Amino acid sequence: MFNSTKSIHILIFPYPAQGHMLPLLDLTHQLALHGLTLTVLVTPKNLPTLNPLLSAHPSIKTLVLPLPHHPSLPAGVENVRDIGLSGNVPIINALGKLHDPITQWFKSHPNTPVALISDFFLGWTLHLANQLGIPRIAFYSSGAFLTSLLNFLWQNIKTVRSLPAVNFPDLPRSPCFASAHLPSVYRVYRESEPDTEFLRDGFLANTRSWGSIFNSFDGLEGEYLDHLRKEMGHGRVWGVGPLSLVGADEAISRVNLDQNSGGGVLSWLDGCPDGSVVYVCFGSQKLLKRDQMEALASGLERSGIRFVWVVKSVSAQQTADGYGVIPDGFEDRVSRRGMMVKGWAPQVSILSHRAVGGFLSHCGWNSLLEGVVAGVMILAWPMEADQFVNARHLVEDMGAAVRVCEGADSVPDSVELARTIAESMSGNTAQKVKAKHLRDKAIEAVKVGGSSWKELEALVSELAQLGR
Q1: How do residues 104-132 score in pLDDT, each as one tens digit?
Q2: What is the C-alpha to C-alpha distance for residues 437 and 264, in angstroms, rounded to an integer?
Q3: Is pLDDT above 80 for 257?
Q4: Per-residue model confidence as pLDDT tens digits over 271-326
Q5: CA 20 to 30 Å from 458, out of 130, 311, 326, 353?
Q6: Summary mean pLDDT of the chain
């Protein structure tokens, strides 16, 4: 505990999407353990997400401001999970209208914040921080490789927008991506369209921010963290992840979630041999179409491998729109070696169970990190957002994953899928060995003296300087 940091007040502004909020709340937990004074800014409906953090740290204050109106947002929607990825642009623009209410709060506060840490989707907060005369630090809930790509794309948008594939000659390994595999947040940009121009301005502001914090670590993305330090022209680029591992206690945002449910699936796993189960889950947002569900079910059945498959419930309207359900008779046929989990699953507990050896995933950054921390090999099926970039890094650069399918609308060949699952899960493959190696590096990074531990200490020490 650093007593000297007590009066140093930091304003934290998370972006209201599950994958963005939880890692930043994990970081907030760490900053609270270091004795900083913290205020977290949320809209009313996102306040319950803070409960585990606030009960662990009663000293953390909240600034609750209503979400301003946006014509594309249905009434009552304040989080991306309630609208899907298409809601990002209107939510970012709506939050941008909080500039004045935040300024008023800041000016009336007896102990004004000395810095603002805000999500990378809130790049507009750089202009706010400049106006308030404090440094803004961008928090990246995603990886340094993705950020390196995004910086290049937004800076060169006029020349790269029309290309079928984009080369990144200045990045480590000089990657090349088909334009369809570039991050969705960049692909929605339309010139002169005010909402997406605001988005672009925010991403360019990220590159000019005083510092950047990444939920990543040296052993996973060291070369890209170094690339960003060089590109930004300063050393204030901190890789402090995996935040779900940092500290002796479990990450605060998830600690209450995993313990209260999932007993059924965990006791089922207790009866399975070590490393024999593949866990199948596509994150909190993604629903599969009917033909995708059928191909995946058929692939799992044919593979002969034990599995846990998390399936989201679909509404009558979604079924009418072509979204899939579990095929008839499937559960009975695989009941001895397969378990279906409907709705929410305790993912961290499942992945860290000794019986789980593989993770069939969409490769969202948080899921990918949870797989890495658990030391399980990833079977990659990237679909949108940052997922193609993450999958490429893990499959090609790190060798800790196998690609099984690509694209939001792709339907895998079930025979091929079955073969890939069976081969990947049998024996001690190179990918399995690499996955265990990456887990060791992740654990090493957050231990006292490890790279992420040092970066977190360096971050706190920089924040302490600001308060002097």
Answers
A1: 999 999 999 999 999 999 999 999 999 99
A2: 30
A3: no
A4: 999 999 999 999 866 789 999 999 999 999 999 999 999 998 888 888 888 888 89
A5: 130
A6: 93
pTM, two decimals, is: 0.94
For 354-378, give the DSSP string. Answer: TTEEEEEE---HHHHHHHHHHTPEE
d(CA 463, CA 263): 42
Q: Which residue carries 């695989």 as its tokens?
A: 334
Residue-wise DSSP of 332-345: HHTTTTEEEEES--
**For residue 242, is the peptide bond before it cis, meaning its omega torsion is within 30 degrees of 0?**
yes
DSSP, residue by residue, 102-158: HHHHHHH-SS--SEEEEEGGGTTHHHHHHHHT--EEEEESS-HHHHHHHHHHHHTHH
Taking the C-alpha atoms of residue 17 and residue 286, their distance in angstroms, rounded to an integer, is 14
Tell me the C-alpha distance between 386 and 383, whole Å.
9
In degrees and rounded to multiples of 5, residue 58 shows phi and psi of -60, -20
Q: Could you give the CA distance from residue 338 to residue 324 in angstroms, rounded to a whole number?
A: 18
Structure tokens at 181: 């595999």
Burial of 400 (0-12, 13-18, 19+ CB in 10 A): buried
